[in-house]
Amino acid sequence: MSHPLRPAALALALAPLAGCAASTATHSPADSLSALRPQYASTYKRHPSAPVLIRNATILTGAGPELRAASILLTDGKITAVGSQVSAPAGAVVVDGTGKFVTPGIIDAHSHLGVYSAPGTESLSDGNEATDPNTAQVWAEHSFWPQDPQIPLAIAGGITVIQALPGSANLIGGRSATLRLIPARTVQEMKYPGAPYGVKMACGENPKRVYGEKTGGPSTRMGNLAGDRAAFAKAEKYRREWDAWLAKKKGEVPERDLQLETLAEVLRGKAFIQNHCYRADEMAQMLDLAREFGVKIRAFHHATEAYKVADLLARDSVAAAVWADWWGFKMESLDGIPQNAALLEQAGARAIIHSDSEEGIQRLNQEAAKAMYAGRNAGINITREQAIRWLTINPAWALGIDSTTGTLEAGKAADVVVWSGDPFSVYSKAERVYNEGWLVFDRANPRNQRATDFNLGTSRPGVGQ
Amino acid sequence: MLTTGVWRLATAQTIAITGGTIYPVAGPKIESGTIVLRDGKIVAVGSSVPVPDGATRIDATGRWITPGLIHGGSTLGLKLFDVGAQIETQEDTATGDVKPAFNVAEAIDPASMAIPVARLEGVTSSISKPAVGLIPGQAVLIDLAGSRMEEMVAQSPVAMMADLGQGGKEAGGGSRARSLQRFRRILRDALEYERRREDFRRGQMQPLSASAEDLEALLPVLKRKLPLFVIANRRSDIENTLRIGREFDLRIVIWGGAEGWQIAPELARANVPVLLEPLTDVPRFDALNARLDNATLLWKAGVKVGVAQQDAALFRNLRQAAGNEVRNGMSWDEALRSITLTTAEAAGVADRYGSLEAGKVANVVVWTGDPLEFSSRVEHLYIRGREIPLVSRQTELLERYRTVPPRY
Fold this sequence. Notes:
By secondary structure, chain A is an alpha/beta fold.
């Protein structure tokens, strides 16, 4: 396979290596190696905030039973107490939660915000580097536009963290970015510190449709698998060479290849495979591919047929990120059913409700509600305690940030949503959204409904009353 | 010519649904009411309606009863897949940009997999429409039950579609202004054609801007017999539409109307209904000021608002759309109206559809609770007076995979 690099990228990749090769005699190679320097590091800083006590609310913690008439204290961006006996420290903002619900911030495991920004012009179509079926070298964050006007709309729906993914044109589409959904000028300010990278892969129709008429393919599902296997087979050697060199940092430095570098991170278990895959039989194939290369698939995305292989997903601890009820928009989505998430839960698999949609992300709570009640109405008793996890701790796990967010537990980030009522009611709205303690949305206060630059001069972000 | 759908042969069965709370939409709710269905029609609704002898009695105590939901513009029966160019399942587009004579009725597939899925969420009727072009063609009203097209079509055509926004630009060579000029020319030519049919036949006229068949198809629109559903989202597109409506004295319905809230009083004064998408607010260049409370702001100004939420995979979610109207400020009664009677009014079929009143078509849903809430589900569904089994391909998949591996 050929991997056409753009001239600029080629120069970036090779220049430091050329420099170090010439100077190994006088300097430690590590000093001048791009591979060992910071790679587009997060510059996220927690926004200062006064302590907040939300009192007398129904709290869905995502980590245990629903708490009635309970309180939660947020201090310096962290949750410091949750329970029935929490008092407000001096200077705390007290929010009356009577009649309201409190949940963890909603995490969307599958978003294209910022890479397919509104207003949807060709100029803003930055999600698919559809120039080669393997573009493991591209990073979604390098496309991400922090001024996407879809961002404040999602925040108003209670979203605190997203995984921004490359599209699904390619077998291996590139690295995802795990981002805090906050007002920012640069994507680096939004990057969730310490979050592992995801690597987007795609099964099925999309790669074979996009490349089926191009020289080289793939044009079939077997071609898809062959392309995936070839990519990882090549990356195995790259990983061995680099790991050997990194262990000693002596001798000739292996050539740096950004595409193989990403795949080597997957082989090391440091980057998580996020696999767009609709059909049950293809998920089973991908699980075998993972075994062949000794890697883990962290989550299947879209996974409209996950319910057919819920047992296999539970066995291999692979999450399934699904829509509540999308189906029939393409052949491979034909068998989507609204009980998908409920059947996954019943089988002990890790279910996630994701959006993949600039509209759906604004009401993921409603999507989870549809999935929960579809289960209940079919005799699969899903509780609110379970369903809230589909939106919070389960996607946090898929993104590898579950130790710091995703539940309302002391010590975790103060990523918190106050809802006007039961979040599984169509009538409820996110009223207050805290992102690590920062009140990034307050429905009662237009000053806390921050527009992006693009919104300026138009009516308002559109969140309504 | 306007035609009314062929009615399914009447069934002799009489059904009486008793004990539930009836939301007739046309009037206040009726606690513990009775509704009687016979020969495809509603024959009585009220709190003291006797149950006829021999009627099949359905106890709906504790249940909510509403009219069947009507989609204000879908591709139900015409299309399944959006993605992947699976043209085997798409019938809503035809080549050309001016197609007034294109009527989709004979493309309706009663066996479409999408129909039972939509029904399970209480959707009983759809304005199924053609797409693409300055004048995409004629939409039809169908009921979502029946094994033959003739059993489903309730009004054909029910509306003429036109696109005077972003989508119609190409028909003008790339500018809205040119599209509007072309649109006016076609309407004028239709009038000219009607005045001089004989000259046209004898070839004693300058060429007209469309075929005789297409111009003929526009005459009901120009006589106000057929509503013109105009796709227009940008404020200026809506204003252009209202201007053309005044010039030619048309029965305009705005379809989309994302920025309608900005000129809500003008729409109210013109008595122009809006069929809109309550779940759509992402800014785009033909709707930079879209917002979720568009429906509410229009309603408060006195505009009639119906729901035509797009997305082929989600036509079943009419009740979620209406629930979101309530979430964003509309009254519950008005939101239910927006997926029933208001849509029927906009389409000119409110004499037969959209409410629970004696004489209307017996499209009735019995819900376990508030139909706009996710917690509720359909318990009984009647289309043209017949109870429809609550099954679909999806319920069969569910039963097959309730436990894995499945028992084949």
